Amino acid sequence: MPTTVQPFHAKNRHQGQYDFARLTQASPALQGFITSNQHGGTSIDFSDPLAVKTLNAAILKSDYSIIGWDIPEGQLCPPIPGRADYIHYLADLLSHSNNGKYPKKKRLDVLDVGTGASGIYPLLGVAEYAWHFVAADINQDSLNNVRQILSTNQALSERITLRLQSDPNAIFKHIVSKDDWFDLTMCNPPFHISLAEAQAGTQRKWRNLGKVSTSDEAAPLLNFGGQGAELWCPGGELAFIERMIKESADIQGQCFWFTCLVSKSANLAPLKTALKRAQVYELREVNMAQGNKQSRFLAWTFLNPVQQAGWKKMRW
């Protein structure tokens, strides 16, 4: 049985199985990580961070013509199929807001909050839809790594602007200037409330992968990596997104749709209460079913119908 990937958005390129023959042809380095699985097919050891990173680099080169992708050891290594889903559902959100038609204007602007060292959302968003991105992060080293990736992909670099968030307690403040207009914002927030909780999550995933470790130090921090603010913040994702909602009200006229992934379904009710308190005009919960895994994001706008019509006439 081949290595399978759970069903994704219909436009997602990563349906069915990984074609390792094609991927290794594009990126020979992947060959060293391919093994036979118990079903007689081929796979990689998804508990090996280097194997996952090499697979990502092969996918980006083969499927998106993105070369030279790399991240420092220990940084969050995103599973590309799931990340691509968020991009495609955001494109659907734009179409649904425009009478079922994708905006005709060539330039659409997106803000990625917490882009990380991988820069994965801007890279995929440009490759799939030619969006223009502001990629923001509190970590200068992460932005430097994205800059290095862009240096080998000139077409992408022309559509991605990097901005350092100087205040670790701020989200939109200091990043969004008075001259900015964003059709979308997006974010994959830190979801743990502490390092201890992140490590406990690591151990659970490690056991689910059939690996055994006797201590936190014996296992890497998730097979997909991640450090510090990538994985946890005081109050976890609930506090982070509540702060995002509060700050979004301060720039409500400068963005059509604010969006954010919500990993814990228990946080949906308090977040919807916070959005109601912020007096958003419209709220949507967008579910992204990926086989047995349930993922979703919240989207909200402060624009009323008259303001939405004006925005669409001006920008779409």
TrEMBL record:
Gene3D superfamilies: Vaccinia Virus protein VP39
Species of origin: Undibacterium jejuense
Catalytic activity, reaction form: adenosine(1618) in 23S rRNA + S-adenosyl-L-methionine = N(6)-methyladenosine(1618) in 23S rRNA + S-adenosyl-L-homocysteine + H(+)
HAMAP family listed in its UniProt record: 23SrRNA_methyltr_F
Protein name: Ribosomal RNA large subunit methyltransferase F
GO terms of molecular function: 23S rRNA (adenine(1618)-N(6))-methyltransferase activity
Keywords associated with the record: Cytoplasm, Methyltransferase, rRNA processing, S-adenosyl-L-methionine, Transferase
Role, per record: Specifically methylates the adenine in position 1618 of 23S rRNA.
CDD domains: AdoMet_MTases
Family (UniProt): Belongs to the methyltransferase superfamily. METTL16/RlmF family.
GO-annotated biological processes: rRNA base methylation
InterPro entries linked: METTL16/RlmF, rRNA_lsu_MeTfrase_F, SAM-dependent_MTases_sf
Record's subcellular location: Cytoplasm
NCBIfam families: PRK11727.1
